[in-house]
């Protein structure tokens, strides 16, 4: 069924009414107006809540900066007293019990101080209010010691503030303030250090009245965090109010006369929690608008459902068609596989037949040789002729068996092997035989067989009869292209040659070259191969005879190598 028919089938009456577009427009305008007004009021309240949080963070950052300035100022006074108690530049650093008592009194009088330390020029502790005698350690690689050693007394006794995350004594992070000890110009005597407990500072920050969750951070100007304290909206709740990567409303303020910054951050989620409580008023208006358009929404859902049904039907039809195509493809592949197997079996069978034919021909040759040994000379000559022809066909079958193409043979290679066998078996005068076949010729077996027998007849005839006086001569066999698709085979000798008149030759009983079956067989085989035989007596004015076998058209499937 078409998709359009599916969409129109069973539609409600209201869906088909011409005024449905007007109803949809009225409902959309009413919904947008209601939602727009509700969103406008909600966004206005949200902006007001965010601005209030921004103002709160700014005021709190000012308060935190003032408190941090006073804390550093009082701690620095204690630190300067510790530097004075260490004595002048040429005095030894105090390490006795009396010196320890004086520094311990400074710590006891200041509730937010944890300890005071004196370190010599090598970073070894000389005095510590934590314990007497002073524990063994080395701070030569700490950042505060490296900074003071780099400045020395020539830096004017600069104050350096840092943090120590893990204290081996207090098990809490500490804020460290340090100054260099008085030393001679160009000399470094050591460092005085006071440790401030962040717990005292956090207790003060917890007393700040916030309506939101917040975090307070003290940093150095290079970004090093000295203190980070988080708290929920309830002053008694110390749970963290911020999550990793959560947006915040922050206020940053520089601490007066100290290289510190105070930052107060309020998570946006804490502000939004208070604002969400006011959203229910606006949500009620939105729900009323949603109820007004629920009928229209139901119609839209019904239409979407029908479209999905149509798409499912089309998809089912497509899947069915694709499955049938796959099945048909699989059937064709199986059929092709069976055909390939049958072709392979046929080739194997053909190879086996050729092999058996070759073996049978060899058996026949062996039988003929045995029979020829029991008969007289004239009859043996006929046996030899028959044996030679059978060997010619046996060689053909052997090359077919070796070939990659069961029904085709390289005639040039066959001609070379044939001539080599003939010159070794049928050469009473010791004539020299040369074969010139510069390129391969792939011929069909039906055309190659008569041409092979022709070559065997002509070459063996030249070897036996071209030189009757017994003097050696030369026989040349050439296989050359002729025209666009043809081939010619030339067999030439420089012997006595044929008589000028064939009829006269037939009357001569002692002329063996014309009185036998050879030339008649050559002409018959040439007609079978579609070739023409030309006899040239005294070629180029010289001695001998030349036979030219011209094949104007070879098999279409042959392949020539350039």
Walkthrough of the structure:
One of its GO terms (molecular function) is kinase activity. Keywords: Coiled coil, Kinase, Membrane, Transferase, Transmembrane, Transmembrane helix. It comes from Azospirillum formosense. It is an enzyme of class 2 (transferase). This protein has 562 residues and is an alpha+beta fold. The protein is built from 15 helices and 16 strands. The strands form four sheets. Strands 2-1-5-4-3 form a five-stranded antiparallel beta sheet, with helices on both faces. Helix 3 runs antiparallel to helix 8 (279-292), helix 9 packs antiparallel against helix 10 (377-402) and helix 12 (445-465) packs antiparallel against helix 15 (518-529). It starts with a helix and ends in an 11-residue tail after the last strand.
């Amino acid at each position: 069924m078409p998709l359009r028919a599916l969409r129109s089938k069973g539609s409600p009456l209201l869906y088909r009414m011409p005024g449905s577009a007007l109803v949809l427009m009225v409902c959309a305008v009413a919904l947008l107006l209601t939602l727009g007004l509700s969103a406008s009021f909600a966004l206005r309240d949200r902006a007001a809540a965010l601005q209030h949080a921004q103002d709160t963070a700014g005021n709190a950052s000012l308060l935190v900066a003032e408190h941090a300035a006073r804390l550093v100022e009082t701690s620095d006074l204690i630190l300067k007293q510790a530097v004075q108690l260490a004595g002048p530049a040429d005095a030894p650093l105090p390490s006795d019990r009396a010196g320890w008592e004086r520094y311990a009194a400074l710590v006891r009088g200041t509730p937010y101080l944890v300890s005071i330390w004196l370190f010599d020029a090598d970073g070894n502790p000389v005095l510590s209010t934590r314990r007497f005698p002073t524990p063994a350690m080395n701070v030569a690689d700490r950042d505060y010691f490296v900074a003071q050693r780099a400045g020395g007394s020539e830096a004017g006794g600069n104050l350096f503030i840092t943090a120590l995350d893990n204290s081996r004594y207090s098990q809490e992070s500490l804020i460290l303030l340090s100054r260099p000890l008085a030393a001679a110009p160009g000399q470094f005597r050591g460092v005085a250090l006071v440790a401030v407990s962040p717990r005292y500072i956090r207790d003060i920050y917890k007393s700040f009245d916030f309506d939101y969750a917040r975090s307070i951070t003290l940093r150095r100007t290079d970004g090093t965090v000295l203190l980070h304290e988080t708290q929920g909206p309830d002053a008694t709740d110390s749970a963290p109010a911020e999550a990793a990567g959560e947006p915040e409303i922050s206020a940053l303020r520089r601490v007066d006369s100290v290289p510190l910054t105070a930052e107060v951050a309020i998570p946006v989620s804490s502000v939004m929690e208070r604002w969400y409580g006011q959203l229910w008023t606006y949500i009620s208006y939105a729900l009323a608008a949603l109820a007004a358009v629920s009928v229209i929404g139901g119609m839209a859902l019904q239409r979407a459902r029908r479209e999905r049904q149509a798409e499912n039907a089309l998809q089912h039809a497509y899947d069915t068609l694709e499955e049938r195509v796959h099945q048909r493809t699989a059937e064709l592949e199986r059929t092709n596989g069976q055909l390939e197997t049958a072709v392979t079996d046929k080739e194997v069978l053909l190879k086996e037949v050729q092999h058996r034919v070759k073996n049978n021909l060899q058996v026949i040759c062996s039988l003929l040789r045995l029979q020829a040994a029991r008969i007289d000379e004239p009859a043996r000559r006929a046996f030899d002729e028959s044996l030679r022809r059978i060997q010619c066909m046996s060689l053909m079958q052997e090359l077919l068996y070796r070939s990659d193409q069961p029904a085709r043979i390289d005639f040039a290679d066959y001609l070379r092997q044939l001539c080599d066998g003939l010159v070794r078996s049928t050469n009473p005068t010791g004539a020299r035989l040369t074969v010139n076949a510069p390129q391969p010729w792939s011929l069909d077996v039906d055309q190659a067989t008569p041409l092979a027998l022709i070559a065997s007849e002509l070459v063996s005839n030249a070897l036996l009869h071209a030189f009757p006086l017994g003097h050696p001569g030369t026989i040349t066999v050439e296989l050359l292209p002729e025209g666009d698709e043809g081939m010619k085979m030339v067999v030439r000798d420089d012997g006595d040659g044929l008589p000028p008149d064939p009829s006269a030759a037939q009357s001569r009983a002692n002329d063996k070259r014309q009185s036998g079956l050879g030339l008649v067989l050559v002409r018959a085989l040439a007609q079978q191969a579609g070739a023409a035989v030309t006899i040239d007596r005294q070629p180029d004015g010289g001695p001998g005879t030349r036979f030219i076998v011209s094949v104007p058209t070879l098999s279409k499937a042959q392949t020539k190598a350039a």
